[in-house]
């Protein structure tokens, strides 16, 4: 949530990843969970609680403009007016923290650009499980922890570069971190494809096909809605 900075997009990613687990659990045993685990522990449990806390944090430290010139405070608050804990936390608060408004349904182009970002995030999360399976890496391996840490730190800059690219009319190219992350994800897909032959031959169950058709239908409906909004713009 602190990377995406948009509760709606974070919720779509959370919901979509639960569908990924259901869709590919006949290939990856690690994805097998009870229905109440998907619903109450993941989707409406830890994920929703994390998104809620992230939203409160963003609301607290988010600013709408950047102060380029330092302004000296007129008066310092007295100790009795502000507690030591609050004053300490205010020192740790960043001076600038821009909130993201992805404007997903502004037009069809913006809709597809945001969905590319959603697909990118879901691919990074899912590749952690697919690569572990095809490369026979244990869940306790330090390699997985290092991968998550590297992706976590790079995602901060990558998301900011991509957000500025699709929302800033003066930006005509994405930054280097976005290209580096894209190439890295492409390499991970290539590794998975190379070592996955013969491992994922089981057909999709009927309920997975229903989920995919429903998901694609909702995607197309959102695309039509965004396209209609784009036509109404001057």
Characterize the structure shown.
- The protein has 234 residues and is mainly alpha-helical.
- Helices cover 66% and strands 0% of the residues.
- The chain has helices at residues 7-24, 35-61, 84-92, 108-134, 142-167, 176-195, 206-232.
- Mean pLDDT is 79; it is low at 63-72 and 78-82.
Oligomer: single chain
What is the terminal separation in angstroms? 33 Å
Identify the overall geometry: globular
Helix percentage range: 55-70%
Number of helices: 7
Quick recap:
The protein is mostly helical. The chain is 66% helix and 0% strand.
Task: Please write out the topology.
Elements (H helix, E strand, L loop, with lengths): L6 H18 L10 H27 L22 H9 L15 H27 L7 H26 L8 H20 L10 H27 L2
Helix pairs in contact: 1-2, 1-4, 4-5, 4-6, 4-7, 5-6
List keywords for this structure.
234 residues; mainly alpha; 0% strand; globular
């Amino acid at each position: 949530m602190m990377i995406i900075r948009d509760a709606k997009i974070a919720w779509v990613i959370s919901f979509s990843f639960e569908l990924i687990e259901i869709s590919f659990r006949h290939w990856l045993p690690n994805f097998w969970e009870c229905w109440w685990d998907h619903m109450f522990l993941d989707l409406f449990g830890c994920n929703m609680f994390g998104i809620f806390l992230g939203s409160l944090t963003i609301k607290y430290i988010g600013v709408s403009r950047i102060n380029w010139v330092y302004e000296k405070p007129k008066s310092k608050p007295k100790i009795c007016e502000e507690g030591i804990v609050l004053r300490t936390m205010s020192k740790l608060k960043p001076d600038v923290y821009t909130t993201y408004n992805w404007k997903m349904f502004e037009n069809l182009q913006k809709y597809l650009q945001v969905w590319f970002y959603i697909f990118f995030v879901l691919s990074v999360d899912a590749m952690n499980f697919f690569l572990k399976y095809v490369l026979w890496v244990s869940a306790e391996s330090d390699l997985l922890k290092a991968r998550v840490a590297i992706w976590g730190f790079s995602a901060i800059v990558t998301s900011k570069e991509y957000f500025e690219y699709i929302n800033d009319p003066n930006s005509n190219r994405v930054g280097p971190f976005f290209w580096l992350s894209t190439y890295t994800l492409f390499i991970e897909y290539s590794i998975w494809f190379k070592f996955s032959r013969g491992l994922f031959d089981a057909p999709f169950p009927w309920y997975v096909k229903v989920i995919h058709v429903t998901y694609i239908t909702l995607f197309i409906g959102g695309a039509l809605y965004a396209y209609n909004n784009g036509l109404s713009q001057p």
